[in-house]
């Protein structure tokens, strides 16, 4: 996402807001055929959900263009030049004339029902650890609106329009990446090149990775929205594992002698079985006038419980389809029953009504009859796909590195020309000027970290491999904090906090600037940084000053410290008499419990040692 002054097709500022919106309006999006009369499968999928969309906007940075009440303006020249610069950095072939295209998207994230995009260049390359990675395409496009709420009962989704229209550069690499770790390294390096231009927004979600993953015998599956670099290897590994398990399921179905035609779509109403059930899900649905429908799956016993990814079984694939196609809460399947309040007696009665045999399985849905039927249709369709192995689809990344079904893969019918924007010619003089303005390569930045800021080889490399390389220099320059301290916090401290379960996404750059200014000015000691950052993550709406006050982290003077140390030594007089100088460690520990974060630890050690020697000699 580019940090330009204005959005891509209007003059609104590219500011992301967090406060309450100024206004809202409602729209429904309808599906249109392409110029050759075809329907895009992904767009058809979204249309058939039957949703309506509520859009929220701000007077400051949302105008009639985002509301689709006014044609787009000519594209932002600053954004175009940044995209051209990136193309030159990776030595891509820039097109002679830039044309704006419309890409059909009717999930509500665009008020128009399409996303505007333009091809900037093709055929570039980057070198990552000695391997040449081809860059197939570089596009400049408008970012989508951001989802802020979803109400399944009202069949509505709410989007905020402040992000809609912010320019972003989309970079597509060639299919040569061969390992999960290499995928992260390539994404990281491309991110460094983008950030080196100095006009890319920072923060969670400003650089997002969409991963196309396939294994031998599998299918091309697109994973959308991987926001953490460190999550990429895990997502790739889990998706490769999922595809391998799906291939194994396909082969197992063949060994069992099963065919597609064996799986009949014959739902059976089994509501009577659950009239007195202890299952809260079933009871709630039936009391609201819903039904219990079951579908027999011949020969599928044990298949639905096969684990595809950690914590996600094949049954979860069926549940995903049921949720997205029919908006039901989920499904139950025989490989996981009895459970969830459903008894063995109820399971056996369902089997009897379905006429199942020993190796058969079944799925259950509790909901309104129309929705339950649609859910089972989606389940049946996914079961048929299992006979072919891995279906091509678009999936969304979960925070734990697993993925879930999102929608079918888009087809060729989703792109068509934008008729409201004139083409833009790219002349040689412009490219020559931009060539002279290219930033230094990231490798030179790495050397500067070591030479200018005296970072060790290991710490400089850690910073280079993180997402904070260019933030580091700003923090050091603008706060006056120690370069080693800043680098250590950006690499080690933040990583450790995330491992502890701290939601570090709530820690914004302004927070970091405030914390390092407090350290540099002596308001707090560097030892307090982890506690302060943890408090910020828990209370992101508070200022750094408020957090420091809340934690009672006002700095101590030397005289106050000396008085406290003398008091603790006096309270532990017997310990000092028995151990002498060896009492330093326990005394130091007691003092640090009282002053941690309020004064530098080195200073504390000096004062403890001084006061301890005075006590011993007296």
From TrEMBL:
Keyword Protein biosynthesis included in the entry's annotation: yes
Key words of the record: ATP-binding, Ligase, Nucleotide-binding, Protein biosynthesis, Transferase
SMART domains (UniProt xref): GatB_Yqey
Pfam families listed in its UniProt record: GAD (PF02938), GatB_N (PF02934), GatB_Yqey (PF02637)
Entry GO terms, CC: cytoplasm
Catalytic activity, reaction form: L-glutamyl-tRNA(Gln) + L-glutamine + ATP + H2O = L-glutaminyl-tRNA(Gln) + L-glutamate + ADP + phosphate + H(+)
Record InterPro entries: Asn/Gln-tRNA_amidoTrfase_suB/E, Asn/Gln-tRNA_Trfase_suB/E_cat, Asn/Gln_amidotransferase, Asn/Gln_tRNA_amidoTrase-B-like, GAD-like_sf, GAD_dom, GatB_C_1, GatB_Yqey_C_2
Keyword Iron-sulfur: no
Gene Ontology biological process terms in this record: glutaminyl-tRNAGln biosynthesis via transamidation; translation
Family in the record: Belongs to the GatB/GatE family. GatE subfamily.
Function as written in the Swiss-Prot or TrEMBL entry: Allows the formation of correctly charged Gln-tRNA(Gln) through the transamidation of misacylated Glu-tRNA(Gln) in organisms which lack glutaminyl-tRNA synthetase. The reaction takes place in the presence of glutamine and ATP through an activated gamma-phospho-Glu-tRNA(Gln). The GatDE system is specific for glutamate and does not act on aspartate.
Complex and partners: Heterodimer of GatD and GatE.
UniProt-recorded name of the protein: Glutamyl-tRNA(Gln) amidotransferase subunit E
Taxonomic source organism: Infirmifilum lucidum
Gene field: gatE
